[in-house]
Amino acid sequence: MDHHNKPIILGGGIAGIAAAIRLAQAGARPTLIESRPYLGGRLRSFIHPETGDEIDNGQHLLMGCYHNTLQLLETLGTRQLVRLQPSLSVQFRNADGTPETFAPIGWLPWRLGVAAGMLRLRQLSLAERAGLLRVAVAIATQPPGPTETAAQYLRRLKQSPRACQRLWDPIIIATLNTPSEQASAVLFARVMQLAFLAERADSQLGFASGGLSALHAPARNLIEQHGGRVIVGTPITGIELQPTGQCVVRLKEREAITASQVISALPHAALRNISSPSIVSHIPSLAQPMPVSPIVSLYLWFNSPLLQLPAFAAMIGTGVQWMFNKRKIVPAQNAQFPGLISCTISAAVAESATQISELVATAVRELRGAFPEMEEAKLLAWQAIKEKQATFAATPASEPQRPPTHTSIPGFYLAGDWVATGLPGTIEGAVQSGFAAAEMLLQQTQSNQKDHYP
After folding, report:
1. Residue 79: how many CB atoms within 10 A of its CB?
2. Which of 32, 91, 295, 381 shows its CA 20 to 30 Å from the CA of 264?
3. How far from 447 is each of 228, 397, 443, 451, CA to CA, in Å?
4. How far, CA to CA in Å, does 242 sit from each of 3, 259, 414?
5. Strands across the sheet with 8-10, in order?
6. What is the pLDDT of residues 371-427, one digit of tens each?
């Protein structure tokens, strides 16, 4: 058995990468272990064999309030690959093609500008528009209760069904991946505070200007340059707690590793599956499955570039919730497949069990209704990606289940978007958790050194 005196990180998704980078920079020489042959987890891209286009595992919107994520990308040297809007602007499209845009008034102070932008949503009555402002005020003065759903909170704030359909529900399902009737009002309020009611720059929406894998591509080299180690293509088959307090990490077709410092950056289900009873006894949230929420992403190739469509839009009254015009977001020439539209369906419980051909036919029909300008475009190819465990279900019941980064096992820490970050299941939550776990581990190391050398 390999006895390891350096930190071990289980899982090479973006949380594990963040933890490994922070430890490597501090000289801790971590070992990062990933079961798949690549790093990045759900944050990855690949070449679509039929069209030759690079597509993502799922569409990810980034925001200016993703401070930890942008800091990690700065460290990796890939920050320039993210393009943020100059100022927040979101186009909405009704099922019948009627457009509307939400954009704060730029010359006003930020919060006033957001309020003025709400007052310009002409699809709502004046009373409904004025009512939107109650939510912004109430988040600061009447915060939601811990068991309240977002829908209950909005009803308490006298938001009309139409206001919810046209503004609040698209925000909730896009950020929490959970329908408003089930979503945590506490997490909804947190999203509003961080993304829309803080600073102007925090609300900027952004996209990777290439495939998502490029954002973290330098991670392995950077970890290894600092004396760390990266092992990919190696499934973790078990983790046990020894009487000595050390952890035994069992690997498929490799020697087991014993380590006194471990960060698990695995998804909840993965960690639960490999944890021995001795581990579970210290992390009670592993005793039961954590409910998850799926996301379905559709990539649709057309015979027209479709450059008359916006770069992205929230769709109202349709099964598809968001449309992304990939040829505008990532300018790329493909003469044989000139148009590429990506569609996102969050909280896609029914859709994840639906035949792909049916999903594609419905999405194309809804797109043609919402965007009459693509009526003549011919569908050439498609790809569906069903991420059945995309995020945890962000319900009021899930919040108490989310464990803290530190555990009652000395030297054992948790990272991942599912731990108690105070955020929904987002890239930012994952990166934040990875940084937090690494900082706690480093503090423990420093404390141990002081105890050892008085």
Report:
1. 14
2. 295
3. 22, 36, 6, 6
4. 13, 10, 18
5. 229-231, 31-33, 8-10, 262-264, 412-414
6. 999 999 999 999 999 999 999 999 999 999 999 999 999 999 999 999 999 999 999
